[in-house]
Amino acid sequence: MKFEKLLISLVIIISSIIIATGMRGIIHQDRSVTVRGLCEKEVDADLAIWPMTFNTGNNELSDLQKDIISKTEIITAYLKEHNLDESDFTVQAPNITDNSVNPYVDRDRINYTYLAKETVLIRSSKIQEVINAQKDSLSLAGKGIAISQEYDSRINFDFTGLNAIKPEMIAAATKNARQAAEQFASDSNSKVGKIKRATQGLFSIENAAVGLEEKKIVRVVTTVEYSLK
Residue 5: what are its φ and ψ, rounded to 5°? Predict the structure, then answer.
């Protein structure tokens, strides 16, 4: 009888040791830290898009047509003077409004029966040439052409080379995340182990500053979970 009690006691003790050891192993395995790594890079825009727009009016359609053609030719010559050729811009079809059939127009107050909005769309990788053409566009006023300066007629700058810099930026963001994990581990008397899981955030491209839209800031954040030893 005593032997059976002793055996049961040993079984209980051994089982307790096994359970305790297993729990410590589980707790040890579950120790981890989740950190974020940021990488930012300033780049130059490589594509400029400028809807170069002007308006004109006339009371005769034939005269309006001649006016559009004449002013468009002046603009295309102007762009070529700024080292932009036919591959850098396209002349779009004019948008013509006939005020004679518009019931909401006060015919006693209109200056022209026909109004036209013409756009020469510039889409070019020649960033500085487009900037210079936009800066000098006031000179066209001397030739009777007023280039629109409204918001939808401003230059938009884009960066299209994201795929080329993605690998190095992800690597840098991951490196920064590991440095943060190592700092956390050092503070908690631990060591950083392997990556348990990682999530790459979306890349964002923003203007470097107001008035400096031809410079872009590319940003990515990675979230990494490391095991701790």
Answer: -65, -40
